[in-house]
Amino acid sequence: MADDVLVLGANGYLGLHVVDALRAEGVEPRCGRRKRSNVLGLLSRKANRVLADLDDPATLREAMAGVRTVVHVAGHYPRTSLDPAASLALGLRQATTLREIAEEAGVARFVYVSTTATVAPRPDGKPSTEADVFPAAPDWGLYHALKWEMERVFCGSTRMEVRLALPAGCIGPGDLRVGTSAMVVALVRGMDPPHANGVVPLVDPRDVGIAIARMAVREDAPSRLILSAESLRLHEVLVRAAETLGLPAPSPAMSDADFLALAHRSEQESLQTGKRPALSVEIAELTVHGVPLDGTLATRALGLHYRPSTESLTDFVRWATPLGFFAHSPESRP
Amino acid sequence: MIDAATHTRIFKILSDLSAVPAEQIKVDDRLREDLGLDSVSSMELVSMLSEEFNLDIELEEAVATTTVSALLSLAERRIPNA
Fold this sequence. Notes:
heterodimer; A: 3-stranded mixed sheet; B: mainly alpha; Non-ribosomal Peptide Synthetase Peptidyl Carrier Protein, Chain A
């Protein structure tokens, strides 16, 4: 099993944790990356890098030669909802191309890293499990619809064993783009981040990496697996973060409608400034439509031990501090 | 001082990422304000330098590189016989 696992998006937030976890399982993966990307994490790990660009089929074919298992952590991620039709088309085109090339290459197992946004709520309000699937794309905005449609593309394969990993919001070391961790960063910077009070399932990215690596190499892993340590209300997450890190408590949550409106305004402003929106519609919709989750199948099926969120928060801050995440000057924030 | 050939290779990387012609890039340019690189592309810049010259560069060093002169200093320190 020396060189037959390819990780697409290996240089990303989750990808690097998957690479580390595969190595812990005794596998030295091929690490797929786009030509223009930050691969400092792969270089420092002396990882085996290969060019694998979702928009360049030739690179995918070459990267998949002789590969038995593909771990796909590079699915299209809509950073804004400003052009939903284009985003949906891009994500579906990339997914369809990738699936076809993987099938032609003789890939036997395909682990697609999707999201908990595709898990449907239960009518009784209890935590949802892997059995709770939306019958059609949920009408909760671009992110939910795109991720549901992309899952459907991969699950439509009859030539590969497809496994879906569904990670919750990840807080922990490695979040270089400050995605899920944005509100924690704001808290530490002394800001008072506006927030709604939806349900937010959380997990440590290192635990996600371990689970995905086991899904890649173990014969008896489930085909659909929620990776979520706990589900909390967002206000409770921020209060817990403030307590853990010794910071002032956040102000109360705002209404869902106000939070969504704030996100839409933020994206519109980003059109003028050319900068990333302070609050994306995707984050707002994930919060407002958050579903409580039961992530215990991963513990039973894979022997996964979820880290407590206090450990994840503390380790995130320890990792991010020397990188200047918490300095007030925009110059020093990565 | 880095040699002319190394200087040219570094400015080509800068130009490729920023879409600013190499001859218009100045040593005192700031990566974000003057060359229009965001935080992600600034990291990609250091990563490309690292790959081009086969260097081990720590994340902290990459984050601290916010100007062309800082990039050149980094190259001067890390590239043997630059």
